[in-house]
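Task: sequence in, structure out. Protein: Neutral zinc metallopeptidase.
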Amino acid sequence: MLLFDPIYLLFIAPPLLLGLFAQWRVKSTFASMSQVQARMSGAQAARQMLDSAGLHQVGVEQVPGHLSDHYDPRAKVLRLSPEVYGGRSMAALGVACHEAGHAFQDAKGYAPLIIRNMAVPAANFGSNIGVTLATIGLFLSYQIPSVGNLLLLAGIVLFAGVVFFQVVNLPVEFDASARARRHLVSANLIAANEEHFVAKVLNAAALTYVAGTLQAIMTLAYFIFRLMGDRR
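Result:
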């Protein structure tokens, strides 16, 4: 239903195109900044950043995959992809210290991170069940309007959890990048005139979060538009 609705395409095409551009930019920027050498590896930079805050208990591990880097708040571990863990480049330092920034947030009880983590179950449920219910509701609204609209409304409520997660996630990611950039310069892991190399990688990554948020918002807006249109 959604794939062949031209109105849906009007809603979703702009953020979808932005998302594709953001993914291309992340890959190309990471590849480019991987050629700019740094004094240490990503793992060493992350370890130093963590230790500077007394987070000696937070581990740093290598995991397989490309750009599979993340911080696990339950295990208290930074998991870095091979090119970030062992890479001695501005790209590796930027990504590794960004993930260390999440460990800082966790240790300090950063409110947006706490809210985001609490919203994860609702977002996971809403992204699957919410979209399914809304899609079925749209289909049935042409056959059995009362049932279709009820299912569509239920899907909207559930998918709103996805939008909430995406919106809360933005300050979490922006703050982690800001912490990384400040630490890299203040701890003399990079020179002040090298900070713009790291900024390129982190800003490219930030664009993917913005695109994801816009895509969720526009999807929700489409469902609401259809519900209100049917009621009129």
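Residues 2-231 form one domain.
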